[in-house]
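> forwarded from #structure-qc
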């Protein structure tokens, strides 16, 4: 695990975008595993800038997103499909038919989970970008999620609902379930880039890096991946 500590969010975003851009430059047909949340917004902004400068193109790339809320379709501004359109896809030259976000409104969610797992197995991520939940979750793999798990529907932890309530009008509006890649789907990526900033992530960062590898801290599994880069700002690195 390579750990990079930087001063602030801005620097974390620039370094993260650099690493993602390098993958696309080296392999224009790369499969990029993408994440939502506040953490990657700055890195996406920087990728858009690099695209506008003619530095990179996503024309032949493909994307697979980690997760989606159950019950929200892509036209809902709180959905992760909407987030991806808004924060990245609509600003770059990606072919939308090659962007993938699990559907939270599929008629049969079990069928959707199987479809997504199969799609991921056929097209493993050249790089998977991750944020980190304050409870150590990756994607929506909450504490206790099995390390061998594939795409599944999960109940969100109370702390995750509280954390994400800031993005909704009322806490009651936060969906209580999500569909997420499993840990095994994340770990199949050739390379993993995790970014975390802010002091509310410091304890999860400590558990991920210094703690035991345990399903109680889903991100701790990353200790067993051969190619992981973690970029932290000073506050997130505060307990290391
Ligand atoms: C969310 C997402 C994760 C994200 C994490 C951190 O619930 N499911 O993919 O990495 O929590 O979010 P943020 O970046 O907003 O702190």
């Amino acid at each position: 695990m390579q750990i990079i500590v930087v001063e602030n969010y801005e620097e974390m975003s620039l370094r993260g975008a650099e690493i993602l851009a390098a993958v696309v430059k080296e392999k224009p047909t790369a499969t990029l595993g993408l994440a939502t949340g506040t953490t990657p917004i700055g890195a996406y902004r920087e990728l858009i800038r690099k695209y506008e400068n003619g530095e990179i193109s996503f024309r032949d790339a493909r994307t697979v997103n980690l997760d989606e809320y159950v019950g929200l379709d892509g036209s809902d501004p709180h959905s992760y499909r909407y987030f991806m359109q808004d924060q990245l896809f609509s600003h770059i030259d990606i072919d939308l038919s090659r962007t993938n976000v699990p559907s939270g409104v599929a008629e049969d969610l079990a069928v959707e989970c199987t479809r997504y797992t199969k799609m991921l197995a056929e097209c493993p991520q050249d790089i998977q970008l991750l944020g980190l939940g304050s409870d150590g979750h990756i994607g929506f793999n909450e504490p206790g999620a099995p390390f061998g798990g594939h795409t599944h529907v999960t109940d969100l932890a109370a702390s995750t609902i509280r954390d994400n309530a800031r993005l909704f009008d009322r806490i009651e509006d936060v969906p209580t379930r999500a569909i997420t890649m499993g840990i095994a789907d994340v770990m199949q990526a050739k390379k993993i880039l995790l970014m975390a900033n802010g002091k509310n992530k410091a304890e999860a960062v400590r558990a991920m890096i210094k703690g035991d590898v345990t399903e109680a801290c889903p991100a701790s599994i990353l200790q067993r991946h051969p190619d992981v880069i973690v970029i932290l700002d000073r506050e997130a690195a505060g307990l290391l």
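QC bot note: The mean pLDDT is 97. The helical segments are 9-26, 41-52, 80-87, 109-122, 158-164, 183-187, 202-210.
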